[in-house]
Design goal:
Elements lengths: L10 H9 L4 H21 L13 H5 L1 E7 L2 E7 L5 H6 L19 E4 L13 E4 L21
C-alpha cells in the first residue's frame, strides 16, 4: 500500500524565518553575539596568558552587541565605541603596528602619573619621567572572543 505525503512550503514564512530581525536566525545570531561579548569581557580581565587590561572598567563595560541586517541577512555586531580600544587590541610602541618605541613629539621627556608617590620633589613630584617607553603589548580581546560564536 503506497502512502503519499505532500508538503506545502510557505515561502513567506521561510523568508521571514531567515531574514526577519525577529526570526529564528536573528535570534541565534544575537545569542552568539552575546556569547562573544561575554568572552571579550573575560579576555580583558586577563588570565590564560593574557595581560590584565582593566584599570577603570570603562572599556569592558562599553563592549556591546547589536543586531544588524547586512545585505538582507541578520548579523550580530560586537564592539566598543571607546577611542582607545584599538590601542588595547592592537598594542602600542614596539608591540604595535609601527614597531617603534614611543618618544615625545615636543620636549625631551614623557611624564606619567606614578603609582608610587613621594619619590621625587618639586615639579615632577608623584610622576615618572622617561625619554621613551616600549609601549603596551596587544590584547586581542575581540578577535580572540570570536571562537565563542562557534558553539
Amino acid at each position: 500500500m503506497a502512502t503519499f505525503i505532500r508538503h506545502n512550503i510557505n515561502q513567506r514564512e521561510v523568508y521571514a524565518l531567515l531574514h526577519s530581525p525577529t526570526g529564528a536566525v536573528a535570534k541565534d545570531m544575537l545569542r552568539r553575539g552575546i556569547r562573544v561579548q561575554s568572552q571579550a569581557k573575560r579576555n580583558l580581565a586577563g588570565g590564560a596568558g593574557k595581560p590584565r587590561r582593566i584599570r577603570t572598567g570603562m572599556l569592558r563595560n562599553d563592549i556591546s552587541v547589536r543586531l544588524v541586517v547586512v545585505r538582507g541577512v541578520p548579523a550580530a555586531r560586537v564592539g566598543t565605541g571607546k577611542s582607545y580600544a584599538r590601542f588595547v587590541h592592537d598594542g602600542t610602541g614596539i608591540y604595535g603596528p609601527h614597531h617603534r618605541r614611543i618618544t615625545p613629539k615636543r620636549g625631551k621627556v614623557l611624564v606619567f602619573p606614578s603609582k608610587v608617590y613621594g619619590r621625587k620633589r618639586g615639579k615632577y613630584a608623584g610622576k615618572v619621567v622617561v625619554r621613551s617607553v616600549k609601549g603596551m603589548r596587544p590584547n586581542a580581546f575581540l578577535a580572540d572572543a570570536l571562537i565563542a560564536a562557534k558553539y
